[in-house]
Amino acid sequence: MGHPLRQICLVIFSVAATTAACAHPHVWVTIRSEVIYGSNGVVTGIRHAWTFDDMFSTYAVQGIAHAKTGQFTREELNSLAEVNVTSLKEFDYFTFARIDGRKAAFADPVDYWLEFNDSALTLHFMLPLKTPVAAKRLQVKIYDPTIFVDFGPAKGTPVSLVNAPPVCQLQVDVPHKPSASEQLRLGQLDNNPSDFPISFGELFANKFVVTCP
Length: 213
Known about the structure:
15% helix; six-stranded mixed sheet; five-stranded antiparallel sheet; 36% strand; alpha+beta; disordered N terminus; 4 helices
């Protein structure tokens, strides 16, 4: 009932599903996201850049062959990037979207790659919609239901629109900060993971809404 510890450095997203061994945040990810529009004004997908905390990043690259000490090229990280995006599918890419009130479906990630900069790994990937659509209202939540991974917005501009129609407006909500009682519950997750509803993680989701009247 749990993944071997060595898999943490290989498949972060598979480890996130562990129950008894993994609960409240153990990995921290800073996110930047772009909503991509086609030339005809339809939403085609969401492009993510997720930067992992220094400790996890250093651990994750252990054992990966590289030419320069302390540096990794995109090519050297290709296998790790592929394992990560493949594992994302099981967890819906931690990206939950609704278009005009209906659940949106994503295709497999494309244009994915990893970079290692300033001791931190950043995973870049494009998450295309299965069916591009002209959305009047797009709502996106990014979170880990198990709260193993803590997602937080990057400073400055964590979300942006690319090629969106001029009438479209973006609203980004700051993630909910846990209250004292919620902090207590988070501290109990490691010991009693089965006592917490899967919806608990949604309380701390990163949320943004795009409206195009």
